[in-house]
Give the backbone structure.
Amino acid sequence: MTAHAELAHYRKTPPSTPFAPTSPSTRTGPSAPTTRIDRPRPGDGRLLWRLARDSGTLDLNSAYSYLLWCRDFAGTSAVARDASGRAVGFVSGYLRPESPGTLLVWQIAVDESVRGLGIARALLDGLSARVAAEHGLSSLETTISPGNLASERLFASYATRHGATLTREVLFAPEEFPDRGYAPEVLHRIGPLHF
């Protein structure tokens, strides 16, 4: 599984964008404090690894890969930080070399303590707006295993908010993986995007 959920049109995203999550009406207790969406730094790698591990749904890559990701793909990734600066969510992605206007979302995770507050949505919107301002963006892609309804809803709502079409097709069949037990990876393509 490569991208799973717990997944704004403006000219240019500053290095750190404040986001005030709101509690859904079904949630009790106060709203979460203001959350900032910004670029990951290499020192965030260990925190992102823990968020991926604790998600319970993401394939966990090596800790080293998260450190590299925060260094080499910071421009196409984002971190959500709480008021203390602690990472409470992230989205990692890259621009496809053969299609530089396409952002592939690799992984998205939100800490259990702040799920349901719209952080995954803010991460996707903030990242795509920043990538659009800095590189241009015409489409967004991710893969989702069948049955991951939270991810499917997250990306379907992204397509709706951005007035784009969502198409699906199997990208990798189970037999293409090196060992058994993998479900097909379904490519979700959203576009055209206009920022």
In short: Residues 63 and 191 are 32 Å apart (CA to CA). The first strand starts at residue 16 and ends at 19.
